[in-house]
What we know:
- The complex is a heterodimer of chains A (326) and B (363).
- With 326 residues, chain A is α/β, with parallel strands linked by helices.
- Chain A has 12 helices and 12 strands.
- Chain A has 2 domains: 221 residues, 3-Layer(aba) Sandwich (Rossmann fold), CATH 3.40.50; 72 residues, no CATH class.
- Chain A starts with a strand and ends with a helix.
- Chain B has a domain of 106 residues.
- In chain B, the strands form 2 sheets. Chain B has an 8-stranded mixed sheet, sandwiched between helices. Chain B has a 4-stranded antiparallel sheet with strand order 2-1-4-5, with helices on one face.
- In chain B, helix 5 crosses helix 6.
Amino acid sequence: MTDMLLEVENLVIGMRRAGRPDAVIVDDVSFSVAAHERFGIVGESGSGKSLTLRAVAGLLPKGVEVLSGRIAYAGKSLTGMPPQERRRLMGPEIAMIFQEPMTALNPVIRVGEQIAEGPRRHLGLSKKAANTVAIEMMARTGIPDPERRARAYPHELSGGLRQRIMIAMAVSCNPRLLLCDEPTTALDVTVQHQVLKVLEGLCADTGTALIFVTHDLAVVNQTCTDMAVMYSGHIVESGTVADVLGDARHPYTQGLLGSAPDFDRPERRLVPIPGFPPSLTSRPAGCPFAPRCALAVDDCSKAMPTTELVAPGHTAACIMTAGVLA
Amino acid sequence: MTGRAQNPPFTGPVLRVADITKRYHLQGPLTAKISRKGEKNNILRALDGVNIELRRGEILALVGESGSGKSTLAKILVGGIPATSGAVHYHGVQMPKRRGREASRRIQMVFQDPYSSLNPRISVGAMLRELLLLHRIVPRGEVRAESIRLLNLVGLEADALDAFPSQFSGGQRQRLAIARALAVRPDILIADEPVSALDVSVQATILDLFARLQLELGLSILFIAHNLAVVQHLSQRVAVMYLGRIVEVADTAELFSNPRHPYTRALIDSIPRMTAGSVNEAFVLEGEPPSPFNIPSGCRFNPRCPFAGDACRIEDPALVVVGSVTGASPHESACLRAADLDELSLARTPNPAVAGTVRSVIK
């Protein structure tokens, strides 16, 4: 057994359909996250990045399930674990932050009480002690005047404060792995900056590992140490952030970098990726990116390229780039 | 330019917004209580004296945090809602309170979400036909040819005519929404966050389209956005909005390299970067914008401003031309301390490695 905190191996997520083949949404995804690591998953809508994260949390939507593969947390398989046992891990071991705090918070319970619920259930604290923890957590996420704010309902708080409440709730039991699903996408740029600072500070203080799902390459660049790029259900490239963004090998990663405006290089021309991502039901055979790829050859549409090491710790799934560099 | 006759030569701005205010009185017991988050005041000041000019053939970006009034201004400009006070001048002539067919044709809007801005039950052809006939853009016999011309203009093919919005991807839908706006041959386009709902790879194609329309049709575009990297890429000038007022306007390069309002500087320093190693610490903004129910006295930014002095808490600064004009147009800022911002920020950023990541702020 390795010292990895989380290992995902050959994960396949999809829907079982009576009398028809399973609809596969996330296909053969493997990655691992070490303790203290901050791992970003980047992809466009429909790439399967959020479902991958939800599979780790055991929060897949109804009808969608893990079809095969293995998710192991600290050496224990989560996929085969009874639901009750798994639920006990959520909070003290694994916690999650959602994109939209207004829908993730209960509108009729005061936020302090919602934060205190975790410590009461999982750490067995008394109501009073748990409330103290809640206020402490709120202070740590930079909420001014936490004693007063703990008595507020979610609707009385601004978007940035609500997201801090979500973070306070997630870290209240001191988890070792924090799952973040686009936590700053709904926030303004100044507030996003503040929330990212809070996350960064918490992870540095407690050694919590982070999986950070986003579509924003710049946010990953500033938040994460390692990353994977997903396209149409596959991880097409992974490695350290410096390697993947600085020396992108997969044509899709290169395309993303070329089409995103970079504030530090305003004079650069944007090069859009032609076409658009395949829909779930019409995924092409072979490499899903082939129809949009400038480098594509006939072999690309025959089989999904295997994931090859292109440099130490840096992988890409592309027959063209792997072939050139091997 | 399209073939349509223009007004006699008019060299001023195509659109001038003069001291527009918009107030909402929230009287309903529940809605008011929820939306004002404990504030006693029940008057929401969404726009509090907005002055801005849109020049012929330019893309002017409007940026600011949510709640700053960007979308309210857009709605007033297209005539969707009336302003409480102030005036909108189109080619130097004041727009009437209630716009007729001709007046409303001139200024068209593209919305943020192409999934909710297109009627799912009307085919693309029918959508365009209705507009072309209602506004008598072309004779009945030429409607089909004109529709195809519009689709080609936004990069779609003629076979889209018989399709319904659900058959298109997000980027294609936004193209349809742009074609619809262009159908009535406006000379001003108001685009309210037109790319923020789109994926990055698609976003670039729509940005290209706006740039092309500006060049080919001579359109003047007010481009509302919160992504400053997008704004920097596309626009010629940028206006920064804070709590219902424009606080800074300048040419794009000038604004980003030499911001003359602390709020603009804070926005720039909050942008996640691709090249700088970590989050820029040079200027971090605390807190969030105050409630529009209770706008601070003096400068509206003073409670969050690290440079605020006593005068800032008393005097409400107007938007005035400030020094160091490097661009073609004046650099305006509503900050009492605009002139000495450089020295102030130098004092705050002793680490040159960090401060250096903001391009040429420190000269």
